[in-house]
Structures are given as structure tokens and as C-alpha cells.
Queue: 2 jobs
Job 1
Amino acid sequence: MAVYEATASAPVNIACIKYWGKRDTKLILPTNSSLSVTLDQDHLRSTTTSRADPSFTEDRLWLNGKEEEIKEGGRTATCIAEMKRLRKQEVEDKQPNEPKVKNHPHHAPQILRSDHLGLQLSTHHVHIASFNNFPTAAGLASSASGFAALVSSLAQLYKLPVSPSTLSLIARQGSGSACRSLFGGFVAWEQGTLPDGSDSLAVEVAPQSHWPDMHALICVVSDDKKGTSSTSGMQRTVETSPLLQHRIKHVVPQRMADISAAIRARDFDKFAEITMRDSNQFHAVALDTEPPIFYMNDVSRAIIALIVEYNRVSVEKGLGRKAAYTYDAGPNAVIYTLKENVKEIVELILKYFPQREGAFKDVFGLLGGVDVAKVEGNVPEGFNEAVAKKFDVGAVKGLIHTKVGDGPRALGAEESLLGNDGLPKTLAA
Amino acid sequence: MAVYEATASAPVNIACIKYWGKRDTKLILPTNSSLSVTLDQDHLRSTTTSRADPSFTEDRLWLNGKEEEIKEGGRTATCIAEMKRLRKQEVEDKQPNEPKVKNHPHHAPQILRSDHLGLQLSTHHVHIASFNNFPTAAGLASSASGFAALVSSLAQLYKLPVSPSTLSLIARQGSGSACRSLFGGFVAWEQGTLPDGSDSLAVEVAPQSHWPDMHALICVVSDDKKGTSSTSGMQRTVETSPLLQHRIKHVVPQRMADISAAIRARDFDKFAEITMRDSNQFHAVALDTEPPIFYMNDVSRAIIALIVEYNRVSVEKGLGRKAAYTYDAGPNAVIYTLKENVKEIVELILKYFPQREGAFKDVFGLLGGVDVAKVEGNVPEGFNEAVAKKFDVGAVKGLIHTKVGDGPRALGAEESLLGNDGLPKTLAA
């Protein structure tokens, strides 16, 4: 008997223009448009297998081998229901099986049965297993790549003839920023204006191939305290920050236009300027919230000071800004820079943030095989070393080097996360 | 021969509605009105002696015993020149000496000479010695109390028949926030609209006696790095923060009205809400600056978390907010609270921030004679202790307990900081 199953992987994305605030919390419609860079799945990804089977008695979901409840009316349930609805609307209703079979009596019964089951996929329950290849402790949000992989695997399973933008409408209802992980390269989430959210979707600003030298260095920062969740945090900002409305109406629209133009022109200096300003403004409106929300800590601040000084030196040499920091709802820094500067920036970070052995998987071979714990670090000529103090080992507990990447990938059956029994192959995280 | 000299002390003030941004940097005209509480000079003060003498060959100034250059066209020079101008305009030009003496030939020549010299005070050079009773290391801005004491001592020396508001116009040109130290109690600095700044002055919202139970606990926080000076920082915010303009036009005016009403009604809950929101918004626009400005650090954030939780418990009990944090251009917290709550708050702070011996001068006798290093600290019932971690000794390196106070005081000759030779009595800081 046929197994109806598909496996997909989806990338992480890190916003340059930040999403912070919903105008509709159920449909997840944002108060402003946002724009991100999709990171390479070769390094950071969520992989998801979805299977539909008439023997399944309910929809079930496993994250990193651990079963998660699919709450009725919750975000996961919504995404699954929407994908089933699309399956019915775009595939099953357009290719009704019964009449066709009646008109073609030469179809063998077993084929008919199999086709029949396949065409009824939307009526079957699904088992879904998802795995993130980056540890939760890295502090990277997995909801964007996770919901993008979920929607992508179901789209593949259901053979949906729809665009990534259409899928982004559904991923958005799982986690807002997930909609941006449906594309590779440089991606805008257009806020839209319709009450039903049907125009609040992701579009490609430029593909990965447009600017493949865009690299990213993630500095994983330790934090003592659990920050405010972004879901509750952003709504508190919407309700209490007087500055947010100004940001939404008068700042973001221009920035969206300007950074899109900078990306199209491959103008890194401008890209960096806008990215850093928007990260700062997002954290500013978080701070303008009652009670205030802080995501950055003293280590985050020190990394900002290093990048500001690094750019000052570079601008003074007439080279423009060479790096852009950005911070999401946590203390981790993501530093965008062009390929040619990554080594210099890694050395700069190592000068102030010594690492434990193995804390950097040097996938691009920057350090020539030397372990990161043995690298002293260095600052560029003219750099004022006093802008930050040297921290203890572990203040930045790891570095991840990656670059702009492609959109969701369809994987082969050999990558399936589900066993013959319909349960996850491994239960370990 | 008569000595023309006067000594005055002036208080520190800590703003609830923050001053951040100038529309005129020379006249020091602010982009928005602000409001502060004047703190008690019994605890924190600047004391200044000004002397005029025909034998002096130039204007000279000593701060904490160390001579400071009076730069031509600088802020100190401007204040001294303005005070001399007022002396001439308000006193000397209105009481011309020569004609009077001629009409009264029974005046003895030496008296005539003395009076004559006195009436020409504005033409003499001055020696000025100023002393702050709080260490620079405390991180408290001394410019406000310093310029208020300077202007007050000169006003006394020159016997100026002018109001504190008029003097505030001059102190403002020394350091913007100094204008608010010309009054005790609760003080507004009205931004004004005239280009010459003649309506940008301080006014009393309510005197000290209106709400004497308003206490303040200053948590002196260690910091590794020197922050951006407020003078250069605020201008960078004016030039680069898109959010500042919204704050100026649409947020501050209402807050000024609301907090003034709260003070008049002695509504601590409302006073606290506005004070905390405005502190947060000031730091938000600092963060929205390019490059961003940070004044608060992880210790500051932890104190905010403690006060937020302290208020949550209190609000839940139906008591409203009982404490308000506020942060100026540095990591120190100033916590406003009513007298009855100070002990509880000191114990709360001590629970998370153990102190060195002698790090708290317990002027109100809260700890019953026990040294602060020996006090364990405590949290109120229902307080979630997990909102912050316990810090090492020295993270908060000292506590200062004070309260709302009066305006500048005229001191007796025995308090003079200048010796017979016209030089500071002590050269030690």
C-alpha cells in the first residue's frame, strides 16, 4: 500500500526590518511590513516529515522527537487545517475521482483504491515529525523555520499547485516571521491591508544568487534571565508604547523601500545603516513598553560597540560600513557582512570574547583548521580597543558562520523522520 | 576694607520627565519641557562662594579645590557675564552712586569709597570656589547643583532683586537642568517658544512642604565604560532619532500636564507610572540614536525588574504602585517612594545587591544602627524572587537615602570656601 508522505527542510531567516506588533492576533497580521535575509539551510534548518494515513486516529506532532499537543484552534492546528483545506480546494475538488473512474472502467480496482485514498488525503489525519539541527540553547527562534518546513512538507505531500507566497499566507498563521522562510534570498513580508489577511504575505525582493557574498556571523550570547516571549511582548508594545505608532506609520515604510533598493543595488553600506537603525528602533519601542522589555544585555551592548567602532574605522578609510549588527527578541547578535570581511570580524569578536574549544564550527575554513579556543583575536589598524572590555570565556558561548541561502527544499524519502509505524524514528532530541 | 562675598548651597534635582535634546545649543533651549524633584541639600549639595574684588585680575573658578579654566564664550563665562549684566541693570544703573554722594556731602570719604566699590561690583573680577559634597565616583551629575549654586551665590553677592525663575534663565545657560535646581519641591522647566530663550525657565509646581513624604533612594551602580556625555548624546539623538520628534510633540506635553496634576493631588501611583514611562522613553530615544546610546546596564535592568515586580505585588493588593525608578544619563537608579516604603525597598535591594561595610549612610535610621553589610535583605510577601539573580558585592556600590528638599540656601560667612587671600581654603577634593 502506498505511503503518502513528504519531507522538506526550511531555513531560518533574520530580519533587517523588524516585525514587532500585530493588528490581528488570530490571523497574525502585522502592524508593519518587515524584511529579512534567509540563512543557508546547509547550516541551520528545520526538517519536517508529514504523513497522511487513513489508519491515523488523530493529527499528531513531534518536535525533536518529543510529542507536542496540537491544541484545538491553536496555531499548529490552524496551519494543518488550512493546508487540508487547500488540498481539497486546489486538488481534490478540481479532480473528482469517482466520476472519472466511472467514465474509465479500464482502471484496475487496486489502482482505483490507491488513487482514491490519495485523492482523499485531506480527510486523513497526519503525523508530523520535525527536527531542528540547532540546539534550543543557541537561542535561535525555531518557529520560523519550523512552520515553514511544516507547511512545505504538507504542500509537497498534498501536491499543491500553489506559489510560495500562497504558502506564506498559511505559514504566517503558525508564526508571523515563518512566512518569510518560504523564500530564499532577501524577502519582504508585506503587511497587507485586507481584514482577512489574504494580502499579508511574503514576496522575494532578490534571490540568493543576486548577492551570494552576503554572510552572517551569529554570536550566541549567554543570558541569565528568560526574556519576555515575543508574542506577549509585542502585544504589550502595541498596547502601551506611544512611540510604536510613529514607527509603524512614519518610519518603516520608507525603510522598506530604502533597504529593498540597497539590496537591489548591492549597496552594503546603506543596507548596514538601515539594518542597524531598525534593530535599534525595535529595541527602543520594546523599552518604551510598560513595563519595559529588554532583550539585549551587557554582552550585546559590547558587540554593538565593537561593530560601531569597526565601521567607524572603515568609513574613515572611505570604505563605508562593512558590518551590520541586528538583534531579535534575545541577546544574540547576528552580524551581516560580506564574505571578504568575515575573517576580520571573527578575529575582532575573538579578541574580546575568548571561546571554549569547539565553540565555532568553521564551515568556511576561516581559521585554517586551528580550534577557535586557540585563536587570540585581532583588531584592525586604527581600531580603538577601549570601546569594550575583554569578557570571560563563555560570555559569547559560540559562533555560527553562515550566509544567505535558498528557500525550502523537498527532500527524498531517505530523509524521512517517520518510521514504518508512523512514529518518529528517533526519540532523542 | 569690606569683603564682597557670598556663599550659597544648591540642591541636586532628578527629573521625572526627562530633558533630552536642545533646539538651541548656545542658549541651551530644550526641545521639550521637563519636570523634576529637588533633593534635600542636607544630603546632596553643591556649595559655592563668590567674591568680587578690585584687586582680582581675572575671573577664576575652583571646583573641589582644583582650578578650572573659564573658557571665553563658554558656559561658566556666560553665566558670570549674565550675572554681572543683571547686577548692572537691576542694581547699579538704578542706584547711581555719584549723584547720591554729591547730594549728601556728610558721607565720610572712606564710606563713600566702600559704597562706590560695592556699587561697581559688576566691574570687578570674581573668584569662585565650589564644592560638591558627593564624590564624582557616585556618578551623580554635579552640573545642575553646581551652576545653581554658582548663580545663587552671585545673586546674593550682587543683592539682585530678582526671582528664582529669573535666575533660572541664567543657570540654564550653564547647564540646562541646573535651572530646575533654583527651586525646592517639584519643579517644571518650561521649554518656552521665544528664540532668545527668555521664556525657557523653571517654575515651581509644588513646594517641598506639599509632599514632604516623597523620598528617594539612589542606587549607585558600577559601570565599566564611560557613557556618552549627555551634551553630545542628546544632540546626536536630535539629529538622528526618528522617534524623538514624536516624543517631543505628542508625548511630553500630556505627560507634563498629567504628572503636575498627580503631584498636586499627591497621587503616587500616577506619579510613579508617568515617571517610569518617561525614564524608559528617554532611554528608548537614546537607543534610537545613530550610533545607539546606552546608559543602563545589566544591573540597571535588574533593578527595574525588582521595582516592576514590587509594584505588581502592591497593585495586586489594591495599593497601587509604591515605587518609581528613573535613570538619567548613566546606570544609577533613583527610586522615588513614599517615606513609609523606604525600609521595605532598601531590604529588597539588599536581598539582591549585598553591600560593603559603610556603603549606606543611614541618615534616617532605617536599619537601627546595623551596618548595611550585615543586613540580609528581604522581599515582600508574594514577591517572585526569580525576577532577578543575586549579584556580587559591589554591583550596586552604594545607596543614598534622601528626600524632597528646598531650593538654594544663603549660607553665612563662616561657610566661606575662600580664604583671606582670595584662594580656596582647602585644596583637597
Job 2
Amino acid sequence: MPETEEPDLGLINSTVVIGAGLLGASIGAALTRAGVTVHLTDAVFSHARVAASLGAGTVDKPDPAAVRLVVVATPPRSLAAVIGEALDKYPNAAVTDVGSVKSRVLHQLQSTGRDLSRYLGSHPMAGSQHSGPMSASPDLFVDRTWAVTPHRQVSEPTADRVRLLIQVCGARYTAFTPEDHDRAVAQVSHLPQLVSVLMADHLLGIPSGHLELAGQGLRDVTRIAGSDPDLWEQIIAGNVDALRPELEDVRTRLDELIDALDDPAHKVRAFLQRGVNGTRQIPGKHGAPAMDYAQIVIELPDTPGALAQLFRDFADAGVNVEDIQIQHDLVRQVGYLAVSVEPGHLRDVQEAMRAAGWRLV
Amino acid sequence: MPETEEPDLGLINSTVVIGAGLLGASIGAALTRAGVTVHLTDAVFSHARVAASLGAGTVDKPDPAAVRLVVVATPPRSLAAVIGEALDKYPNAAVTDVGSVKSRVLHQLQSTGRDLSRYLGSHPMAGSQHSGPMSASPDLFVDRTWAVTPHRQVSEPTADRVRLLIQVCGARYTAFTPEDHDRAVAQVSHLPQLVSVLMADHLLGIPSGHLELAGQGLRDVTRIAGSDPDLWEQIIAGNVDALRPELEDVRTRLDELIDALDDPAHKVRAFLQRGVNGTRQIPGKHGAPAMDYAQIVIELPDTPGALAQLFRDFADAGVNVEDIQIQHDLVRQVGYLAVSVEPGHLRDVQEAMRAAGWRLV
């Protein structure tokens, strides 16, 4: 399905969304906005009703035979049962789910002996500290990664419908085997969750007066530790096998770090540098590749108002300054400003700055 | 010094700031704005000049005998030497520093045999991912905690001048013994730094494709791991004794967590709940105590536009809605919205919502 072709929404019209929480209601809102009829259900009817009142679909019941797509967005521990029921109840629908662990659910479904050609698991990389339909948005998935986890039985029409769902939600499609997916989320999602909890748990043992000295760093590291323990217990229970070796690896390197404390200048320094390198592995915001900015170095003359003028000239040139560093020339005692800009704009910025009379190094 | 009294800025006029990085330049800017003459120096002269051009003071040299306060804001490893030189060079000045570890510097100074009645260490809880004078702001310390760490030799005039510095910068004064301070920052600053690095370091060992699935949680947990390794090596080297037992405690609980994986429903659940409780220990933004919001529960009638009307009524009542949750009544099948507001506004909001025709539960 090339991106340029108008998607055939008939493929997924109508859709049933089971579970009208943040994810389900947001999917409903995105599909509804695109023109797809969405039927919302929830074990708690008022959730479905609130989601419907926010534009995520209708609480009217569909003709089961007319349903083309079912999205299961219920809590992790109920997924296999609800997916199985959906396959039975909607005989012409592709069924997907948005759970964050894939292998165990697939194995549970396989163990029921069902034909799974109409089931394809998926996992959108979106969420919020807030849960429930009140935080839902049709734009929740825009530019986010949405992984599908194909297994051998998946039929082509099923794959097409799930791909269309992802397209309509504005997300970026990617595919993993269920096993690779679960290993990946163990590493980049479940492990950070437990590391954050480990740090937050530690705070229970320290004098409360000491927390007066807490800064933004502690808040950032522990933010996700405040997440719903009930949800996370289910996620971790579903992915214990992938998580255990990751935690054991962290323990090994924690042992190394404790030993390294005797040699801060070399061993701790190397550890800290590995941390910096590690953060550079993370793609930029919303899954865009981490950008290497281009740098322009400008000599800073010793005249009043020079800096203010420089920034006015940047603004006039339409330059988005990404970062600024000051550099120095110990011998000549002049200052330099190193300015980071998007690589594609490098040449234009250089020309504009030269034209404005600045000396580039 | 009662807050209501006009501060006598003559006590700290003139002030020398040694080290024109983010902290030094910001202190210079705050004092300059208040009317204090600030003399900036830096081992790299262009740093001082840029800070001066941004309004943080002058690069002119002071009369050493006329200097009343010296603020040392140089990198950690140079602190003791620079403080010692400042005590010698400015015979009538109180000297403070803004280093993040206090005991070791004090012991180093004590070992020189100097009279330390004019030295009082301090530590403002402010910073930024960006370093250098370009990010400086006279408001950097407003409402931030600024700890002083008195020792037995500190004279009263010295304590008064440092307290005035903190007041002029708009920060919140607090006092710790050097040992308690260092234990506290080990717990709430240095340990989170190393935990963040531990997580970021781990990313170097995983397939890069797996990072496609990274979300905001990983970015938050690892953000501070991207900090300057040179600075952090110095901080850690200065506080190894306080850090070691904290890291060892984390290792003990990591061992427990790995064992707990066999029993997610009870042991992992309890661990996750402790994490939530831990995050609640952290005071609110800018050192304000964590606020317990008051909750109002409103019945949500099944009429179109009810939610939109509710939020219009909140806005008309001038209510700052802090959080929203939906609740449900399984029997009556009606929805409730639980709205969190500041406790002081509870009664007003209740009255306004009742007056607007809503049913409060």
C-alpha cells in the first residue's frame, strides 16, 4: 500500500474498540475523525460513554458480521481471553490488541487451538501519565512508533487492516517478531521502569529533611516510578523471562561500579562517559533519528551589545539555534560562540551571518 | 534578619565572583540587578567577559581591601585551593563557594591551618543541562533551596553576608552540617546520577533497532546521564564515602527484586507500590511541599455536551483543575468525574459548581 494512494477506509469500517481507556478512546477518536464508524465497549459502561461523548465513537452495538476490525485495549491480564472472544464473536473481523507484551498472549491464544489467521498483535509506543478516556486524543499516536508482531498464521487481509489502522492513526509502522519485541521492551521500557522504582524505593529509607536538596534530576529519574502499580505488575508478570537477564546485567555492572569507586579518575570517569554514549543511542523525540547538528563558530568582538546584535541577526536569518557553547582563545583572549543549527541550514546560515558582518572561524 | 527589613546591601558591596560559568554568572547577574558591584574573574578571561556583557558584573579589578564577599564558583577539584587563595587575597571578605560536596573541601582547608572564620560553604540547588555563562540568569535561584554548611569557626558577620547573598538571589535558605549535607546529596543527587548512568550504559549493549521502541520513560530516566562526565567525576570523587553505602543498599534491593520476579503478584507488586510511595516523598516543584489536592466528585449526566459545559463552568469559576479521574457506578451505570483542586479553593469551587446546577457526591 504506497503512502500516496488514498487509503480504502472500507477495509476497517466498521471497527469495534474493546476497552475505552486512554489508548482505546484515542484510537476511536482517530478513526472517527477519519470517517470510520467506531463501536466502543468497556467492562465499565460509563468509560465507553465518556469516550463516546468525547468523539471516540458510539456506544451503539454493531452487527457482528459487519465488523471488519476489532482493537482490544483492555488491561494486560485479560488480553488473551478478550481477543479469543472477539475472534469468536466477530467472524469477519481482523483482531489486534495494543498490549505491551506479545509472546505470552500469542502462546495463550495458540494453546486454545484457535485459527489465528485473523489475529495480529500490535503495540503503539504512546501513553501518558494520565489514564482513562478523559486524556484521550485523536493525535496521541501521530509520529509515534507502532509495532506489529506477526506470527506464521497471520493472513494478508488481517495484516492490511492493522496496517491501515496504524496509518489512519498517523503512527509509524514497524514490525518485530513477538520474541524480539518483548526483548526490546524489556530493555527500553520495562527495565527503565524497574530502575526508576529502585531509585524511588530508596527514598523511603532516607531522612525526609534530606529531600529538601532534591533537584530536577531526581524528579526525572523517578517520574515513571509513580505509574500505576497494578498495570505494571501485569506487564512485568507477562515478560519475566526477557526481563530477568537484563536485571542481572545491571546487577553485574552495579557491582563493577561499586568497585570502581576506588578509582574515580579512571574507572568512574569511563563509566560516566559510557552513560553519555548510551544516551546518544536513543533516537530523537517522537522516533526521529538523533540529529547531529552542524556547528558554526563565530568570533565575538569586544564591543557592547555584540551578543544582542548577534541574536537579532540569527532571528532575522530565520535560524533556529539548537544549542550554544562558548569557546575561548587563551592566547588572543577573544571569545567564540559555537552555535548548533540543523545541518540542512548550515550553508544558508553561514552566508547570512557573513553578510551581516560576522567573522566565521 | 527578618524578611520585612530592607537588606543592607553595603554588607556585600563589593563582591568578587570567581568562575563565570552558569552559577557564577547567574549570581553576578542577581547581585548586579540588586545594585551590588560585582567583579568577575575566570581562568578563561573570555568567560568573564561574556558574563559581564550579559549583565553579570564587571571585569575591572577591585581594591582587594574593599571586597566584602567572595563567591567561588569554580570546578570541584580546584575549590579548596581557590577558596584558600581568596581568603588570603581579600582580607576583609567573607568567602563562600557553591560546590556540591562540602566535607572534603572543608577538611582540605582545615589541613592548611588557616583561620576559617571568614569561610562558610554553601550549595544552591540550581543548575541546568547547559553550562557556561550564556545560560546564566539572575532568576536561576529564585525559590530554589540554597544550603549553607556551617562549621565551628564561622564568624557571625560571615554567616550574615552569605545569608544576604542567598536572600538577594531569591533562594530559600537552609542549613546542614557538612556531613549531613554530603549524605543528603549522595542520596538525592549523586545516587540518581549513577542510577541514570547505569541505565544509559546498559543501552550500549542492546541492538540499536530495539531503541525504536523507546518512549518518554527511558528518556526521562536517562536524561541526566548525558551530563558532563568531567564535572561528575569530580563530584563523585569528592563524595565517595557517602555514596558507597547508598550504592550498596541499591544492590541489596536489586538482588531482592531479581528474586521477586518469581512472584510478580505479591513481591513485584509490593516493590512497585514502594516506588509510588517513594515518589511521594519528593517535595513539589521548586521545593514547595508536595501538595495533597482536594477532590470534588461530580455526577456526569447522560446528556450531550455535558462535559464541555462542565469545563466551561470550571473556567467561569476560576478553578485551576489539577487532575481529573473518571469513576463509575457499576449498578446505576452513571459516570462520575473526580476533579482535584487546591485545598484552599475547595469550598468556593463546591459552591460555584452547585450554583451552576451540578450534583456533587
